[in-house]
């Protein structure tokens, strides 16, 4: 029995080291004590279906909302690799909180790129976010867009000094907790570079929050609905303009790479929590007629290995793309198909890992209050994050063939879709 326990302990040690070898240490950016507090609150938040106010306050106090902002602006100075590592750890503590906060993080990462490359007013915005720990709600999702970030059904009508904006954004994480709203909108009547991105105060007249989030999983992510009703957005708050569907836009490409990498990292953290829970259950669980711990059975060990191999491969890929994106002089547009491929693979690998972990543990994992039951519900949400698998598989195939494509779902014939060849 001592030999068996030594073997199990060695396996656990190797498992921890495998992840530590891939990701940088980020305890200085978000402490283990804070993460433990989030983990302790997660089950209750899920039961209530409400994003925890105290958890959001703890993130503010920790300086989380300024992580990707340069240190000289008062931020954490973290690049994509460190931010993804933080998201992985946060996803292991409370996936719903992690995915909600992730929507802020990728928008700030996109704005930081804009400020660095264009030296425009985004720098002032970033400094305010970092020093005042302002929270951004990323209002990019809309009904009917099939996950496209490059289009909008929210209409912006030109008026004196700006636009009157009307439409619906849903789901929108942090909708009821944010200080600022980042959104895309479409000029009407049409203007050159008519797809616009703006950051506006959340208390702007004409914006209201509708509590609409009631779901199977990620219940405590606060992903409600934002309604815009003749909301005035001045020209000064429009920070970026491009053509709808503009695949060669570097700001959009930055946002998409950040979104794919950090989203995948959140779910890798969730999977890590599921596998850790499963291993603990397998070490303690006994199959009576075999007089053996589940963990000692070769069939169980092999099944666990089958779950781990694609997850660790995915972790390596995710970290590698993040590290490459952080390199000065890197054209981030070239990384977009790689980031999309990673997120595409995450859907299958992460869901399979959690489902497989629960199956190995057995029927007890199906209990409503069991951690694996909650993580199984949470991981299903990965199917619905942008970009969708329908769009991703099409894009990657066309990219490989050198065919025309867009970073969104297209059902048009190739001859009619020649407007974009990508970067």
What would you say this structure looks like, in words?
With 423 residues, the chain is α+β, with helices and mostly antiparallel strands. The protein has 3 domains: 109 residues, Acyl-CoA dehydrogenase/oxidase, N-terminal domain (Butyryl-Coa Dehydrogenase, subunit A, domain 1, Orthogonal Bundle), CATH 1.10.540; 104 residues, Beta Barrel (Butyryl-CoA Dehydrogenase, subunit A, domain 2), CATH 2.40.110.10; 162 residues, Butyryl-CoA Dehydrogenase, subunit A, domain 3 (Up-down Bundle), CATH 1.20.140. Helices cover 49% and strands 15% of the residues. It has 11 helices and 10 strands. The strands form 2 sheets. Strands 1, 2, 3, 4, 5, 6, 7 and 8 form an 8-stranded mixed sheet that branches. A two-stranded antiparallel sheet has the order 9-10. Strand 2 and strand 3 form a beta hairpin. The longest helix has 35 residues. The N terminus and C terminus are likely disordered.
Total number of helices: 11
Q: How is the CATH topology of the largest domain named?
A: Butyryl-CoA Dehydrogenase, subunit A, domain 3
Distance between the termini: 59 Å
**CATH class wording of the largest domain:** Mainly Alpha
Q: Can you say what the CATH homologous superfamily of the largest domain is?
A: Butyryl-CoA Dehydrogenase, subunit A, domain 3
CATH architecture of the largest domain: Up-down Bundle
Overall mean pLDDT score?
Answer: 89
> Which value, in Å, is the CA radius of gyration?
22 Å
Number of DSSP strand runs: 10
- How much beta, percentage-wise? 5-15%
């Amino acid at each position: 029995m001592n030999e068996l326990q030594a073997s199990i302990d060695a396996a656990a040690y190797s498992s921890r080291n495998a992840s530590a070898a891939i990701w940088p240490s980020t305890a200085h950016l978000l402490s283990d004590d804070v993460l433990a507090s989030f983990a302790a609150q997660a089950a209750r938040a899920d039961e209530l279906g409400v994003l925890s106010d105290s958890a959001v306050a703890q993130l503010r106090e920790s300086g989380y909302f300024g992580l990707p902002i340069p240190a000289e602006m008062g931020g954490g100075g973290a690049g994509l690799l460190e931010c993804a590592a933080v998201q992985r750890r946060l996803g292991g503590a409370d996936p719903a909180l992690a995915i909600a906060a992730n929507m802020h993080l990728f928008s700030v990462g996109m704005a930081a790129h804009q400020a660095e490359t264009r030296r425009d007013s985004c720098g002032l915005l970033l400094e305010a976010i970092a020093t005042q720990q302002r929270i951004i709600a990323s209002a990019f999702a809309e009904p009917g867009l099939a996950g496209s970030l490059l289009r909008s059904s929210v209409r912006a009508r030109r008026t004196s000094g700006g636009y009157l904006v009307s439409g619906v954004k849903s789901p929108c994480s942090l909708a009821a907790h944010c200080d600022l709203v980042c959104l895309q909108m479409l000029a009407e009547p049409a203007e050159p570079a008519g797809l616009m991105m703006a950051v506006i105060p959340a208390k702007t007249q004409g914006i209201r929050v509708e509590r609409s989030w009631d779901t199977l999983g990620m219940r405590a992510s606060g992903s409600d609905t934002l309604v815009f009703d003749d909301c005035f957005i001045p020209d000064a708050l429009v920070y970026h303009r491009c053509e709808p569907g503009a695949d060669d836009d570097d700001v959009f490409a930055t946002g998409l790479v950040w979104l794919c990498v950090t989203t995948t990292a959140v779910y890798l953290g969730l999977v890590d929590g599921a596998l850790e829970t499963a291993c603990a259950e397998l070490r303690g669980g006994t199959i009576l007629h075999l007089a053996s711990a589940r963990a000692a059975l070769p069939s169980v060990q092999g099944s666990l290995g089958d779950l781990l191999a694609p997850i660790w491969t995915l972790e390596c890929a995710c970290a590698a793309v993040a590290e490459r994106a952080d390199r000065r002089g890197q054209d981030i547009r070239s990384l977009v198909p790689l980031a999309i491929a990673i997120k595409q693979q995450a859907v299958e690998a992460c869901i399979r890992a959690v489902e497989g972990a629960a199956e190995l543990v057995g029927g007890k994992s199906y209990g409503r209050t069991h951690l694996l039951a909650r993580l199984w519900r949470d991981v299903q949400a990965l199917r619905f994050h942008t970009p969708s698998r329908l769009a991703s598989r099409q894009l990657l195939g066309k990219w490989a063939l050198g065919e025309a494509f867009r970073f969104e779902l297209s059902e048009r014939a190739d001859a009619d879709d020649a407007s974009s060849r990508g970067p």
